[in-house]
Write a structure and sequence with these properties.
Elements: E1 2-7, E2 24-31, E3 34-42, H1 54-63, E4 69-72, H2 79-84, E5 88-92, H3 97-107, E6 116-120, E7 123-126
Parallel strand pairs: 1-4, 4-5, 5-6
Antiparallel strand pairs: 1-2, 2-3, 6-7
Amino acid sequence: MRLAIAVDEKGQELFEGHFGDAPFFLIYSLKTEGMELLKRMKNETPEEAFHGDLRKFEHIKALLNDVDVLVARKMGPNVRRVLSSKFKVVISRELLLKDMLAVFHRNAALLEEGKAFLLEGQELRKVQ
């Protein structure tokens, strides 16, 4: 399972804004022994004509076509399209990347049970 995490410029914290507005995505692979960083991708999506623009969603979908899970502090208006696509969504209340990764890894089996999740404290829980 691969996940794309919306992060800030330094890559140490999750981006505070919407997933699609993050400057970078970190692509991780879930392994039995832990999380493996595969690559850091610059978000080069085009400017939106309006908030929730379908073109932005289509660009993100193509950019992250080999990813299964999108992780962010917030999702924008395209979240309905995201949930209708192949992606699962995790909204993280954990700001620090290392903390989020630890909680995610311990609870990753839960992802088989739904499409939308909240990562908060030491748990990951299904919301849809």
